[in-house]
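Quick one:
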Amino acid sequence: MESRNLSAQSLALALAVAPKTVQRWLNGRVRRIRIESADQIAAILKMEKKDFLREGPPISISCRNESVDILLSDRCVQVFSVADKMDLYVKLLRSFSLNMLPSEQRADVLLQKGVVALRFMRSRSATTSLNEAQSIYRAIKNYSGQVDCLNTWTQVDNLLGHFEEAMKKSVEAENLISVFDLADKKPELLHHRALLFVQGNRFSEAVELLKEALKLEFRKEAVDWISQARRYKDLAEVFRLLKDYGSALKYSLRSQKLSERCGYFRGKINAHFQLSLIYFFKKNYTESFQHLRSAQAAEKYVSEKDLDVFNLRVLFFWHLKMKDFGAARENVFKRITFSRSVRAVQALAKLDYLLLSKISKGLVPYRSSFESALLQTWDVDSRQRQAAEKVLQMGWGLDFEDVLEEMDL
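Output:
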């Protein structure tokens, strides 16, 4: 500044800040300075920012929004996941102006928006956010962010029934993990790939991948206990599909206990629903009903927007058992309404309407019920119907004849 005959007061006037602020910068009492101020100072002094920051006491550029970092933290997300606060979380995410954030933080917010959209099964919103986030991560060569994007994208494609695209993204993420030594991302990758294998009826491979993911996560210094609870739940679901109800019960109980221990409210509800279904197929209706009541008691604190459509299917089986066909039909319609264009859910709905039609002996006609429900939620064309048929043929859910046999109906 002295070499350019510029006083602290003149610099303060040019920057429209108080002279005391400039003095604090020069005296080293402030260790961080906003990037906009650094740009202005560099322009006034006709210097590069890196040269300006080297003069005098060390000052770093503060360009990240600390409030955004707090909002994106795992702990904060857990807090908002409890009860009916995810809508508020989305509003807070939208309250930040992305253009005012640095590239990396902007991508982090977009990624989180994609994750939340996926939770609410809003596939289009999730895809849009993930596209933008991935473009930024690639531009700034943030490989960890790219892997997180690809892992989330895999889940979106899986729900939409785009299994080939999902597998391509999974392979791309695996290559990034291998090349850039991102071993901490491997458990999540294996978890999502296992879910892909479940859709292809490759249950044995899915079991091995989930067990490997659990082992790798336990080796990390900071174990993600919520992810572990989810993996136990998904492992239990694979064993249920294999009709190995003993193993399914073991891992579902582990998921329940772990969810309770780490305060994972949603995981506790999911575990109760899953245990209810497992006991149902074991024909232990007393235990099944108790877990169902526990899940419903907890879910009264959860918004309908935050309901898990696959948990609602447990209620559907109970409606069938009690011969309450009107409630069963309403249950399927509610699941379709929540999920909209998610192919896997549409295939399950088709399967359940088949069940309902057969068990009610035509009292609830299959074709009219299914198609009227779909027409009220999204336009049905031949391509979408074929996608639902494909998912159904690939084994999502149980064959309805098997269900009838299992339920003695």
